[in-house]
Amino acid sequence: MGIGRKPFTRVVHAGGEPDPQTGAVMRPIYQTSTYAQTSPGEFPVYDYSRAGNPSRTSLEEALAAIENADHGLAFASGLAAIQAVLQLLEPGDEVLVCDDVYGGSGRLFRKLYAKYGIGFQFIDMTSVETVEAACTAKTKLLWIETPTNPMMKIIDIEAMSRIAEQHGAWVAIDNTFASPIFQKPLELGAHIVVHSTTKYIGGHSDIIGGAIMVSDPELHERLQFIQFAAGSVPSPFECFLVHRSIKTLAVRMHQHEKNALAVARFLSDHRRVRRVSYPGLESDPQHALARRQMSGFSGVVNFDLEGSYDDVVRFLGKLELFSLAESFGGVESLINHPERMTHASVPPELREKLGIGPTLLRLSVGIEDTDELVADLEQALG
After folding, report:
1. Is residue 1 part of a domain?
2. Same domain, 156 and 289
3. Cβ neighbours for 272, distance < 8 A, ≥ 6 positions apart
4. CA-CA distance, 205 to 336, in Å (whole number)?
5. What is the spatial distance between Cα 33 and Cα 36, in angstroms, rounded to a whole number?
6. Residue 14 has what pLDDT?
7. pLDDT for the residue 1
8. In this structure, are residues 227 and 73 in contact, taking their beta carbons and an 8 Å threshold?
9. What is the C-alpha to C-alpha distance for residues 31 and 148, in angstroms, rounded to an integer?
10. How many domains is the chain partitioned into structurally?
């Protein structure tokens, strides 16, 4: 059975052929931990659900299909997926990391994996020259977010992939902000794509999950062993929920983008807003690069409010449709204060350098009515 080539068709049918045993259009949830064996060590497909489960197999097939990858792997969280990538490395290896990176990723690198002899260098990857100068014989991985979290920097994936190839390194792209609907890093030369499926892929703020997509068979085999040996896998029910959510991903992403563009344009013209970052704005300094490697611009907008932190608190208190909460990518609109919330673990000097200050706010623009979201921001800004 075909799944189609275009996103709106592909997300609906990926990994979702009717159940061959019953004909059920939605695959059943295989809520089991173990499977009967025909004789010791002999079994048809599955032996233990940490190693594999039909519900997870369906999800992993769908994850691969939406990213145009040959293989997909599901994990219990986005950070569990990131850890699996890091476990490809050896003591003495070095990783170049984009300086503006999700606070949880940076914390994982600095606090946990650095003590195992892996070096992490945080650099501005919007500069090709800076990355070229930072690469050494020990560089084994370039860790990239684009757009970055929370400053919305756009990093040239093709350029980073060329540099990595020259040094025999892998390129891993955290594609969570863009989603597979709006960006396909593997087609731009990346080796590994990582997602927090908690965000856009899950899309309903009701699960925690992660994913890795690759096309290289050797990488897949190594990552699959790490997934099995380390054991950070999602439950069958969570696999079902994420797979169900994938079916509406394309529809949701286009509404996220429509709303975010309207919000970004409104904020750009408001006297109480000092600066807006959204790659979909033609005025954004990285708009041309974003258009070249993205087919859409997703639903995250950040901006600096005029005034002080106290003004920010007053503004947040007036909002009615935007909830103050961490995370992004759900159907509901959220607002986040990175300095005190998602990026509080980033070293203060790096936060200051990046511009993550007391008046910076990050919006996750949901799929509600466009005019009502703008009106909520307008009344809160007064």
Report:
1. no
2. no
3. 305, 306, 307, 381, 382
4. 15
5. 11
6. 84
7. 52
8. yes
9. 37
10. 2
Domain boundary among 231, 246, 261: 246
**Is 199 a known active-site residue?**
yes
Q: Is 115 a catalytic residue?
A: no
The one catalytic residue in 174, 284, 304, 376 is 174
At residue 366, the pLDDT reads 98
Give the least confident one: 41-45, 122-126, 211-215, 358-362.
41-45
Per-residue confidence (pLDDT) for residue 157, from 0 to 100:
98
pTM of the model: 0.95
Give SS3 for 113. helix
Query: Could you tell me if 258 and 364 lie in one domain?
Result: yes
pLDDT at residue 377 is higher than 90: yes
* 192-250 pLDDT per residue, tens: 999 999 999 999 999 999 999 999 999 999 999 999 999 999 999 999 999 999 999 99
Cα torsion 111, 116, 117, 123: sign: negative
The answer to whether residues 123 and 67 belong to one domain is: yes
Domain membership flag for residue 138: yes
Q: Whole-angstrom Cα distance, residue 333 to residue 300?
A: 10
| Active-site residue (options: 46, 102, 113, 278) | 102
**From 19, 35, 47, 50, the catalytic residue:** 50
Domain co-membership, 231 together with 285: no
Q: Are residues 310 and 187 in the same domain?
A: no
pLDDT in tens, 139-163: 999 999 999 999 999 999 999 999 9
Token code pair at residue 279 = 């790659």
Give the residue numbers spanning the domain of 254: 250-381
Q: For residue 76, tell me if it sits in a domain.
A: yes
Catalytic option among 153, 184, 199, 362? 199
Q: How far apart are CA 231 and CA 163, in angstroms?
A: 33
